[in-house]
Structures are given as structure tokens and as C-alpha cells.
Amino acid sequence: MADFHQNGNIATIHNLRTRSSEDMARELASFATSRKISLVLPSLFSELEGDALPNILAELAEVPYLHRIVIGLDRASEEQYRHARQFFSVLPQNHVVIWNDSPRMIAIHKRLEDLGLGPIEPGKGKNVWGCLGFLIACADSSVVAIHDCDIVTYTKDMLHRMVYPVANPNFSYQLSKGYYARVGNNKINGRVSRMLVSPLLISLKKTIGDRDYLDYLRAFRYPLSGEMAMRTGILPDLRIPSDWGLEIGVLSEAWRNLAPKSVCQVEIADNYDHKHQDLSPEDKTQGLSRMSIDICKALYRKLAADGTVFNEEIFRTLKATYYRSALDLLDSYYDDAKANGLYVDRHQEENSVELFAENIIEAGQMFLDNPSATPFIPTWNRVHSADPDLMADMLKAVAEDLKEFV
């Protein structure tokens, strides 16, 4: 049974197991008659070959309230795009597959680059940003949800619960963030959230002092979850990071643009599992090593923008404080796992802590060497101001791809 604890910083919408999924879906369908709800699925072509996505589509096929599903397809050839069109055709809802690597879409991105507004690097952030631009251009949705395509424990109830707080016209939330337990193969997962983000936020508070922003982030049960829903009115001014800091970046944008009472977190699953990244200790450009660096840089940039002064001494102190905090939390996670009959590899966990501690310094040095660097993609409001025809031309490019590559 879930608790009903509220932390006072943001609202927490619990799953008290007192309402059926079918009942919530019926109410969402009634909301959707006047507040259209869309879904964005950022996908690599390789995910079409995995085990998770067919089940996700089977679950989505039974969702009655979705107005449109936008699939952003990355790293796909023409033949693979044609296959993807067939693959997603099982969806009964209005849906579109955006082939991000098509000649027409490449031409759109070239126009952005010529304006100095193109995404810095390919990846999930760029994919999500493009899909949101497509939805803004469609101008017919009030709510958009986003989730990954590699969730092996996916059920349609996850979408119902994630969307409900922002779809309900009687609620004032502009952003809802999903949370859940990460348990799979008889062990606790989610190393980056547990062993980097949680102790790092504790350590930042000890090192640089109280910050409302740190309390805000600490209020989230799972700040790195890729599942969120938003009212579309906030999308044109949303700055999407193109690196692994996407989830922290979106929460930071919500902190900057919205009142705390406009943000909530919602319990969307009893258990959640998806594709796992390698730790990649030998290569800091890959896996969890790169992810940890990008997340640290995202936090440093936000704190610096709010007036925090960083230097090498602060980063060295932060590393030492983090290391102690992370080991203390490891004891708590170990005890929690044992009490629930789960396994924790303490050696592997401590290896992760040591790597993350190194990367706190690595990210700090990168920040000091180039403090003005930013991975944020320009807002769609800025894109529209620089090239008023681009969004309409993007809609046309997607439609022409759909027509030509049947």
C-alpha cells in the first residue's frame, strides 16, 4: 500500500489502489472531448527490434482518449522508415511517424543550422524537441505526454495516471512527472538516480548552502524518470537540453517558468524496468559515465545562473562530501533491499560511487573551462521568430514523406 506523504514543495499524487484503471480512462476520455491529449514517443529504430515496444503498442491500442501519437524515429534508413510505418500501423489512433533522417527533414535542420538555431548534437533531446515542435505546429492539443519506447513493464495504466493531473480541468498543474520503484531481476536498479543524484543534491546543500532549487529537486521521488505530461501552453518557451541532462533540464525549466504549485509528481507504477545502460568506466563519452557528467553540468549551470559561485575548491569539497553521503545512502539501500528479499551488489554499487565522484570533478572542470557553454536547443518561440515559415514547412515535409514512402 502506498503512503500519502506530501513534502510541501510539490504535490505528490499517490496511487492508493482505490480506483480502477478503467474508471480513470473513462474520465480522461470525457476530458479529451474538449482538451485533446497527444503522446510523443521518441524512438530509435533499434527499439522496433526489441521486446518492449510491441507490448507498448498493444497497450496503447486500448487507450480511448488519445487524439494523436507522434513517433520521432531516429537512426533509420528509407527501408527502415517504411518498416516503421508498417510496425506502428497497429495503432488505431491518429498517428504519425516522423523520419528524422529523411532528406526533407535534414533540409529543415539545415535551415536551423544556418540560423544558428540547430540542436547541438543528435539524441533523445533533439528528437523530443522536434516532436514537440510538430505538435505546436498542429495547434490542436491541450496536453502532451512523453515516455520512452524501451519500458518492458509498460501498462496503459502508467499513461492514465501520468496524464490525469494535467488533463483534469479542475487541477492547476502544468507539468506532471512520473515516479516508481526501479526493481528488476531480483535487485534494485536506478543507480544514477540513487547513487548520483540523491547524494549529490544532499552534498550540494551542505557545500553551497540552502537553495530553494535544491529543495525543489529533492522533492522528486525519481527526478530522472523519462515519463512526464505537460499542458501544451508551456511548450513554446520550453528549452530542451540535447544531452543526457534532458530530464533534469525540463524540471529546471519548470522551476524557472512555473510556480511550484503548477508542478506535481505522480506514482505511475508499482514496478518499472527498461533497457539498462552500461557503467562505461573506460569511456566517459558513453553509458552512465557520460550521463553522470551531463547531469552534473546541468545542475552546475542552473545553480550558477541563480548566482552560485563555483571554483576548484568548491568542486573538491563537493566530491568529498558526495562520496561520504553516497556511502551512507548505500547502507540504507542495502538494508531496504535485504528487508524486501532483493539483492544489492555492494562492490558494483561502490564502483559506481567512485566513478560518479570522479565525474563530479570532471564535470566541474568542464564547467570552469567553458562556463558559457549550453546544450539547450532554442525555444520554438525563438525559432518561429527567426523563420516564421519553418514550422509549417516541417508539417509539409512530414506529410510529403508519409505520401512518398508508402
UniProtKB/TrEMBL annotation:
UniProt KW keywords: Transferase
Annotated InterPro entries: Nucleotide-diphossugar_trans
GO molecular-function term, one example from the UniProt record: transferase activity
Keyword Transferase: yes
Protein name (record): Glycosyl transferase
Natural source organism: Pseudooceanicola spongiae
